[in-house]
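Figure 2 data, in text form.
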Amino acid sequence: MALVPDHLSDGVIELRRCGFDDVDEALRAIDESWPELHHWLFSFQDHVTHDTYTDATREDIKCFDGDQDWRYNVFDLRDETFVGMANLYRLSGPERVAVGYWVRSSRTRRGYASRASRLLVATAFSCLPLVQIVEIQMDVTNIASARVPEKLGFRRVAELSRDIRAPGHSGRGVLWEMDRQGWSDTNTNVPTS
């Protein structure tokens, strides 16, 4: 049994552990969002097929059960629409994890990434007792993505050199961090399951 819950919700969105039931909905969202996903995310540099996505989902399930990478599909509970994906994943050592996210192109600028990230940060600090720092990283030019850690109160701690692995990458990244104490000081009563 994984250390984190299979479902997380704040009453507006629900994060559901990735599984085979959502493959078709995820593929529709990926197809719709392909230009943006391909532009920013190195994991979307090759075309995604039903078979490759099913294989990736199988790996996601294994990583979730192995407590290495907890990947979720994000749904808007008001209309049950698949609106994107978010994940919490381990970095080197047990004290740091990171949050990643993407939102379906037709559903951007509605707060989904911020809501999903808030749930994942709360989950990291409540379910993973050794975690002291949660990171979010993005390319320095990805202004829309940077709004998420800003909104959640993360500190921008560094600008880093990084490999150019997608067309939108500039070779410079931004590292944002939230520590356990800072989170508890600013975020009380955040639902995590």
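Caption note: The first helix runs from residue 23 to 40.
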